[in-house]
Amino acid sequence: MNDFEKWEAAYKRQDMSCFNTSPEAVLWLKIKDLSSQLPAIAKQLAITFYTSGVRAHCQELYTYLLEKPELRNKFENFRQFYCQKHSPSWNNTLPASLQEVPTYNWVEHYMPSLDRYFAATYLPRFPSFTALESMKEKIAAEAWEFVQNAWYDHWTRNYIEQLFFAHPRVLPSMGTLRGVDFFIDDCPMKLKLLYFPQAFLKSRKGTDVATTVNESLKNPKELLVWLYTEQCRLRFGAENRLYLIFHDTTKPENSWELKRAQKLLAEKIENYLTQFEPNRLPSITFPFGGKTYTALADTLFIVKDEN
């Protein structure tokens, strides 16, 4: 097995730790991320592929870049130009639109899908159509609440991603890499947005909310291990992760508003990226499904306190 095949196999089995220690492994990720642009890359680098098929071309490109440092520089320049040009963007009205959302009440029973919720809630309970018809306004209100909240989650994430992409140390992934939203320098990261998890608070019996939050701010490793260990089996991932955690210390139910706190978000993200050092990221080892995984992870708390 050559190195290209080794990185490919590690990626498929979600052994992502090698992508934190090997520049060659990171190069494999970058090539896979731009696999749809191989003809343009070949033209830019003035190289010829002698095989057929995307995977074979990726392997050839990998060999070219390892053997000729001058091609590596041209590839990195192409990648930076292409990723910046094609990164997602939002229009100028988005920040103001986010401020218009009046309430947010994400109800877990809507998950995993609204249609299942409606089917389970209304179909078995109402054998009478007249009785079902009497619930029209309630059903319409629930549908709107779901759509409004989903819209808010989608566009606040888009807005926050753009704050990351605007920093010179960040390049977005082009969407072909599982578990990678962007690279900070050469460190691949998945961005996760969440409110301080209530289940984690409950798991620390005898410790109050304020103490748990403060301890996690100072030393997030216990929380990070918990987040990886308790993740949904269907969405399992062992990739590097940056968790943005939103928490209003006085009114936790208002934590959702911090996802549109433009000035606070911009300052926090700018400071984090400016001071980012991959060798200082916590290394998280966690069990899942009978196996043990290792990833780099970090937290960025977006907190509103009583001051």
Structure write-up:
The protein is of the alpha/beta class and 307 residues long. It is built from 13 helices and six strands. The chain has a six-stranded mixed β-sheet. Strand 2 (182-184) and strand 3 (187-195) form a beta hairpin. It starts with a helix and ends with a strand.
Summarize this, please?
With 307 residues, the protein is of the alpha/beta class.
Secondary structure topology:
Elements: H1 3-12, H2 23-33, H3 38-45, H4 54-67, H5 69-85, H6 94-99, H7 114-122, H8 129-133, H9 136-165, E1 170-172, E2 182-184, E3 187-195, H10 198-203, H11 209-218, H12 221-229, E4 241-248, H13 262-274, E5 283-288, E6 291-304
Parallel strand pairs: 3-4, 4-6
Antiparallel strand pairs: 1-2, 2-3, 5-6
Helix pairs in contact: 1-2, 2-4, 4-5
Number of helical runs?
Answer: 13
Fraction in helix: 40-55%
Overall pLDDT metric:
92
Beta percentage is 5-15%
The oligomerization state is single chain
Number of strands: 6
- Please trace the helix and strand order, writing H or E for each element: HHHHHHHHHEEEHHHEHEE
Anisotropy-based shape: globular
Rg, alpha carbons: 23 Å
Strand order in space, largest sheet: 1-2-3-4-6-5
Which segments are poorly predicted (pLDDT under 50) over 5 or more consecutive residues? none
Any key phrases for this structure?
307 residues; alpha/beta; 13 helices
